[in-house]
Amino acid sequence: VQFVESGGGLVQPGGSLRLSCAASGFTISGDGMSWYRQAPQKAREWVALIESNGDTHYLDSAKGRFTISRDNAKNTVYLQMNSLKPEDTAVYYCKAPGVTWGQGTQVTVSS
Fold first, then answer.
1. Tens-binned pLDDT, residue by residue, of the chain (111 aa)
2. Alpha carbon 82 to chain centroid, angstroms
3. Residues 6+ apart with CB under 8 A from 54
4. Which of 23, 36, 45, 102 is most solvent-facing, going by the fewest CB within 10 Å?
């Protein structure tokens, strides 16, 4: 079982990025999928969840700016991030219960 995150990069404040999480050996449609992030010298924090029924939930600071979605046919979860702020700078990870953390993808928001 493996998750491979991609789509990170350097973006200016106010910009957008779309992160992808490709799953192998695991069917994303059968479980809730989350995005987490870890900023330098900070604890990892939960950012967003998409439940198996499609319901979504967000960290307060992400509401209205981030959108989690999934494509079951591609077995991939996405995180669309708009209006990015410097405080969004972190390594972003996708996660499902019982699955080992992947390598994450770095997001840097800076002018």
1. 889 999 999 999 999 999 999 998 888 888 899 999 999 999 999 999 999 999 999 999 999 999 999 999 999 999 999 999 999 999 999 999 888 899 999 999 999
2. 13
3. none
4. 45
Please give, one letter per residue, the 3-state secondary structure of the chain.
Answer: CEEEEECCEEECCCCCEEEEEEEECCCHHHCCEEEEEECCCCCCEEEEEECCCCCEEECHHHCCCEEEEEECCCCEEEEEECCCCHHHCEEEEEECCCCCCCCCEEEEECC
The answer to whether the beta carbons of residues 59 and 46 sit under 8 Å apart is yes
Please give the distance of CA 16 from its chain centroid, rounded to a whole number. Answer: 13
Radius of gyration (C-alpha) of the chain in whole angstroms: 13
